[in-house]
Amino acid sequence: MKVSLFATAALLGGAVAAPHEARTYLQTDALAADGVFKLGMYIASQPPQKCNMRNVAVRKEWSTLSKQEKKNYIAAVQCLYKKPSKTPSALAPGAKTRYDDFVATHINQTLSIHGTGNFLSWHRYFTWAYEQALRNECGYKGYQPYYNWPKWASDPAKSPLFDGSDTSMSGDGVFIPGRNNTCIPMPSLCGISLPPGNGGGCIKSGPFKDWKTNLGPVAPVVADPKPNPDFAGLGYNPRCLRRDISSAAAKGWTKDSDVVSLITANPSFYNFTTRMQGDFAAGFLGVHTAGHFTIGGDPGGDLFASPGDPAFYFHHAMIDRVYWTWQNLDLKRRLYAIGATVTVNNDPPSRNTTLDDKLGLGFVGVPEITIRQASNTMGGGPFCYIYA
Ligand SMILES: *[C@@H]1O[C@H](CO)[C@@H](O)[C@H](O)[C@H]1NC(C)=O
Ligand SMILES: *[C@@H]1O[C@H](CO)[C@@H](O)[C@H](O)[C@H]1NC(C)=O
Ligand SMILES: *[C@@H]1O[C@H](CO)[C@@H](O)[C@H](O)[C@H]1NC(C)=O
Ligand SMILES: *[C@@H]1O[C@H](CO)[C@@H](O)[C@H](O)[C@H]1NC(C)=O
Ligand SMILES: [Cu+2]
């Protein structure tokens, strides 16, 4: 029994490369493998649970999916986009589709789920709810894939996720010349100045070429955003998906060494979640913001409306994989670790986040759960998944 659990854990943790791709050895993946081995030992030391190594779902890197698996995933996203929304139009007139319910919820809660103690658990629940909608409402049989930043950091536009082919999530936008750098967090406080990439306009090819994103922008990074009729960004504002894939963001802050130092140099939850989200004044973008700017454009570069670009969920699955790895490396201390407060960067000062705080996803339509429940991806309440 124990032997087979260990074997499963070791197998799942092994770096599996598709035959056509170069085997790149990443320390990030070695840490994930070490973590899943420790998770296997932890599970084996506990009384038997409903969710175990035999029935656990395994989320995989996009490049390791077969062509058909990729097409099935893409078809499920397109399906979600065709279903009617559950958000009352009086609350968010721009939420036209089931896909938009997720975007509207994220926009609505943006200022209580970033720079706060629930950042990691909220986005974990959000990504899971999206995966479940693809499965339960659109017949998808797989799980949410992730985008392993360091694997593609030298040239993200060539990655299978962004290469613009019919098995990608579409690629870069049309090149718009003569653009300024993007200042982060804002022009008046230019902690980081990112050069424009090779896109900036509407995406050129692939399955999402003719998509319209309906909500936002709220905090646009493009120079000429189409303004939303509603101040909060929840009005109807159909426009093309724009991207500006940034190898500068990817190379600068999502290399293997960047991810490894995030995981290994931050034993406290507070430091881990804070470092991940960057220190802009100090010129440090962090993997979270860098991953968003690797996609860039509108709504990809917009803190509020970013889930309007379906690449969002691949980035956030990787954020979750890194959090999961960090937890697995010291489960005793980190499985139920928490820190930070309930206001963005504790401004204004507020109470500490606790494990009993609730996570709600509005009209996405899933029950509220506690951060404690969301802390365990194999707790069965409601999660039962790991990452390869
Ligand atoms: C936004 O959040 C408020 C407060 O939680 C809630 O009452 C409202 O229904 C939410 N709106 C949407 C569109 O989710
Ligand atoms: C670039 O920045 C300058 C100075 O802020 C501004 O005047 C100009 O309009 C900007 N150009 C574009 C294309 O955004
Ligand atoms: C958190 O980070 C700060 C600043 O880098 C450091 O001084 C502190 O020792 C760290 N705390 C822990 C527990 O790692
Ligand atoms: C909040 O958390 C900090 C850091 O862990 C701790 O020092 C402080 O005592 C906590 N505050 C309250 C009111 O519990
Ligand atoms: Cu977010």
TL;DR?
With 388 residues, the chain is mainly alpha-helical.
Structural write-up:
This protein is mainly alpha-helical and 388 residues long. The chain has a single domain, classed as di-copper center containing domain from catechol oxidase (Orthogonal Bundle), CATH 1.10.1280.10. The protein is built from 13 helices and 10 strands. The chain has helices at residues 2-13, 27-45, 67-82, 98-109, 119-138, 149-152, 247-253, 256-264, 269-276, 286-295, 312-328, 331-334, 371-375, and strands spanning 57-59, 173-175, 182-186, 189-194, 200-203, 212-213, 239-240, 358-359, 369-370, 385-387. The chain has a two-stranded parallel sheet with strand order 1-10. Strands 2-5 form a two-stranded antiparallel sheet. Strand 3 and strand 4 (189-194) form a beta hairpin. Helix 5 packs across helix 11 and helix 7 packs antiparallel against helix 10 (286-295). The relative contact order is 0.17. Residues 1-20 have low confidence and may be disordered. Residues 267-268, 271 line the site of one 2-acetamido-2-deoxy-beta-D-glucopyranose (NAG).
